[in-house]
């Protein structure tokens, strides 16, 4: 595929991209849609400053977790009323773990990945803190060993759909089926797949899923996360962060908690409206989008980058850390190099922005909505220039300075 | 006190107040400081759109929970490094309850108020969900019966500093002392006192406190909440929402959770930066403020309103629900009336904005930073007009319509 026959080329103009920058870090913080500043300014000056508390109803603030969830739902193959936007990914993992454990009270094992994004593991520790009978069974990278880990003691399996370091993409449907065959509950972490991969949560019969909105969904810094529950669980969601937003009658101010039915049972307290407004604008860019077209472009972008970099930079010690087969890879490419940190600093200094992950990984995210094939070629060329010239070997690029 | 000798009169100009409105609902959603739109726009267009991920360091995003906490600290009598802004009040109550219970592992009772804002109670239910040995002991309104509730089984006492319905103000120092004498941990909910009452958490030796930032602190809709821990607990904070922001080495991406020391142990996941930016602007209005002057004006405003309303409206069935003595009252006045709902709707239609709480309470909050004594007189006069004319008795003001 080339830019001239890219069916998504028109999306690029929806985004603000700084001059002189090739932004390959949309898997950390997505770029801003051009409509965001005005939308936020309206929420600030009109809805907050002028309309004040009436905006909880008039501007739909109270419903934002549900209305934003409904905009995310089609991107992840979920029924409209099966997703809410609320709190952070970490907190939603905690809720999903508790909801899963409540569905399997006679089982005692949580299966998770040793190399998942660490907060997933930390939240399993938190969920286990008050339940001495629970145990954790850690499996290898990208779901390796999940089969062997499954037995009649497993209550819940928590896996990342796309690995945050390598970009490895798991087979959601097949793994979910195995987990169910073992009688366990399946939770998917979609942080690195939502917005770039066609996901079919309902079709795969997934139980719960959580994900981030500020990466490929472009919701802005720290925008609240989303959480999904399969409709068959909607009247059985039990989670301990039982705040008033999850109450069946939140404005009756009753002293006893009575969970509402449906996905709102995953809500807790008052949500950050201004940050949600940015997300609202960002999600509008996805309206009616063909996620298969997004995936096709994503695979083409990452494959081009892999090919160009291996061809030109392999001799300088750059090795592919991501799966070679695009079908097994998310929208991200990672390489290793002993001087990865300095190389990434040199790239950033040249306006090619990716990031570095310990111990030696340089990581590049490809957002198909705002990246072109020319960007990819230029980024690969810049990486080659830096390696060929030895430009990365400068004191200011050495590790030990500020974290990027 | 009158407007002509109000030492805080100059603060009013810092806020945007809609024309024709007397805003007596700052205890629900505080008014906007005039600097907020530009500050937020800068965060959106410059920090997010142009500087992208570099803003996590360059713009101080990563530190915002701590820097905002340090701005709140002097308003609540806390050491600078004893407060963070993060997550919601409900979630922070959950954390504080767990941290308290971890300090009293051999005790089994949580004491809370039957009529506190319900989410406080709901979160005690959540905290108890996985611990069958825990019990809850409910006491009466505004801390009544706390003495009788204290015994050697009590692990933690959770009380509201100011009651959300009546505005009753509790004696923080005296109650904390009693709770400590019984060997229990004290948590204060400061949602309705932070920003309007001089609070001395450290001096009162309080263990933990939580509070809202979008009421009297004017942080904007759903701005994240704050949580305080006394310095003596800083190296013993155990709470199950153990996300990566609370890790001792968050960027080492280690698989095992190791809590950081200090107040950051109450953090969890990524925070909504745009909403925090609004709060940042709002807190700057409090820089160097004399909280005793705020309290003096608050007492004078609420006392004037009580006197005017009782004098002119008592004959129409309006009764004072708040404490009569200003010293025992927060910055809020509540009355009861059988037709409270309709009366509040009529007031709002006339531009006097308060709110209604079941079953028959009309509630008025007084933010001393942006309200004048003239506002108070005009509001009381409008209430009188509505009652004297019977204007409230219109179909459009009857209950059953949309919730305000």
Q: What does this protein structure show overall?
A:
The structure is a homodimer of 404-residue chains. The first copy, chain A, has two domains: 3-30 and 290-397, Aspartate Aminotransferase, domain 1 (Alpha-Beta Complex), CATH 3.90.1150; 38-284, Aspartate Aminotransferase, domain 2 (3-Layer(aba) Sandwich). Helix content of chain A is 32%, strand content 14%. Chain A has eleven helices and 15 strands. Chain A has helices at 36-50, 55-58, 64-72, 89-103, 118-128, 146-149, 172-181, 273-284, 291-313, 340-349, 373-389, and strands at residues 15-16, 22-23, 32-33, 83-85, 109-113, 135-139, 154-160, 185-189, 208-211, 226-229, 319-320, 332-336, 352-353, 355-357, 361-365. Chain A has a seven-stranded mixed β-sheet, sandwiched between helices. Chain A has a four-stranded antiparallel β-sheet with strand order 11-12-15-14. In chain A, strand 7, helix 7 (172-181) and strand 8 (185-189) form a beta-alpha-beta unit. The mean pLDDT of chain A is 96. Chains A and B meet through helix 1, helix 2, helix 4, helix 5 and helix 8 of A and helix 1, helix 2, helix 4, helix 5 and helix 8 of B.
Produce a short descriptive summary.
2 copies of one chain form a homodimer. The first copy, chain A, is an alpha/beta fold and about 400 residues long.
What are the SSEs and their pairings?
The structure is a homodimer of 404-residue chains.
Chain A lengths: L14 E2 L5 E2 L8 E2 L2 H15 L4 H4 L5 H9 L10 E3 L3 H15 L5 E5 L4 H11 L6 E5 L6 H4 L4 E7 L11 H10 L3 E5 L18 E4 L14 E4 L43 H12 L6 H23 L5 E2 L11 E5 L3 H10 L2 E2 L1 E3 L3 E5 L7 H17 L15
Parallel strand pairs in A: 2-13, 5-6, 5-7, 7-8, 8-9
Antiparallel strand pairs in A: 1-3, 4-10, 9-10, 11-12, 12-15, 14-15
